Amino acid sequence: MGYEGREEVQIFPNKEFSAKRQWIATIAASIGIWATGTVLGWSSPSNPELEESGDLGELSKNQLSWIASIAVVAALLSCFIIGYTVEKIGRKLTSIIMVIPFVIGYAVMASAQSVFMLYAGRFITGFSGGAYTVITSVYIAEIAQDRLRNTMGTVMVVCLCSGIAFVYIVGAVVSWRITSIICGVVPILHGVAMLFVPDTPRYLLSKGQTEKAAASLQWLRGAPSVQDIEPELKEIQSSIEEANSNASGGSLLVGSTIKPCLMSVTAMAFQQLAGINAVIFFSVDIFKAAGSDIDPSICAIIVGMTQAIGFAFAGILMNKFGRKPLFFFSEVGMCISLAALGVFYYLKEEKPETAENLGWLPLLSLVMYMVTYCCGVGPLPWTLMGDLCPPHIKGIASAMTTSTNWGLGFLVTFTFQGIVDAIQGYGAFWIFSGICALGAAFAAFVLPETKGKTVEEIMRLFADKV
Question: Superkingdom of the source (predicted)?
Fold first, then answer.
């Protein structure tokens, strides 16, 4: 296996080992999240083409909504199943196995002769994509040193957004069938990359595979010898033993435990109820409906690239400004940008002559929305999940938070078109704007600051409030 070799490395003055191999493992794992991004972004360029071309017959708005949202339903289901699988057979093996259904799903989509075949393909790829949100987050958290964990966690969301931008670009120049074939190659790249990195030391230790755990940790740290990583190995073992001794079903109901978990879930709820999935899945449709004089596919690509670049800077901003103020200003920025987008839709409906001179406003509003989302509300709930959820119930709490993400993501995606039909586009975006205002209040008055605090300090913060 590719991680068995030894390599002499320079020890930094702070006694930390080289981070090079941790970055290699993080990028290898995050290619799976890039594949997940292709699932999320696929319907944006493909749905309008399916509707116009009639390749699968005349499709209703309801059918197009299901094409977009059924992947999210599958992702929600996968969170609970994969949470069990990663504990039974490991993070690495689960990750490699999930390549198979991912490729099959895209093959079904590429060869679809009916809308039901497309539903099936979208469901399979959605299940696989959802699985990687669980696998990759656990994998990165368990291989990264404390000093690198936040930054490496940001790589995951950067890859997610890069996958979305990638499918926007591909979908703008080739047909939806070719797009599916190209997207099907991405999980294969992930599977190959994972062959050359180890499973996590924590998982291996939990299965009693001490020698393999030591070899894994030595490779990840680039340590000259096993003796160099023995203190960290013992620390991981102690953490596992403590988690096992504290684990119990009732412990979730303790006030000092349930409060931070609910706070993590609430932060994730505000992320999804801000309408991000509606923007991603229907970005091309949004620009077409708005009557923008900029090519809709180009607008979607700009929005997708803005998202990817924004997430790349999120880790720096989190470390500089902290979680609480960043979440607040992110919500405020999204509130303003969505309100402006609603104003454009209102003018288009009520005063079309005025709206004709504002064809630039949808692009500006959505770029501002993406920038503020990516710098705060996008990555922060995932960071807060790691900060707030107590170690001995992290599996349960992570499943709760992740299922909230996918469940509300489905709700927003599936109901968006119906909301637009009922109260017009401006009404839908003003609702999202109002939710962002509530999110800003949550950040200002409820959310604690966790920057620079240890797990024990965070738990003590909530214990003091019991």
Answer: Eukaryota
Q: DSSP class of residue 448?
A: P
Q: Is the pLDDT of residue 1 over 70?
A: no
CATH number where 52 lies: 1.20.1250.20
For residue 79, pLDDT beyond 70: yes
State which amino acid sits at residue 365: S
The boundaries of the domain holding residue 445 are 250-466
Q: Which residues does 6 contact at the CB level (< 8 Å), separation at least 6?
A: 218, 224
Is the pLDDT confidence value at 388 over 90? no
Helices then strands, each counted (H, E), the chain: 20, 0
Q: Is residue 8 part of a domain?
A: no
Of 197, 231, 261, the position where a domain reaches its end is 197
Q: Mutual orientation of helices 20-53 and 146-173 as an angle, nearest 10°?
A: 30
Residue type, 162: S
Indicate the pLDDT class of residue 466, thresholds 50, 70 and 90.
very low
Same domain for 301 and 172:
no
- Within a domain: 226: no
Mean pLDDT, range 143-166, rounded to an integer = 81
103 in any annotated domain: yes
Of 267, 268, 271, 445, nearest in space to 374 by CA: 271
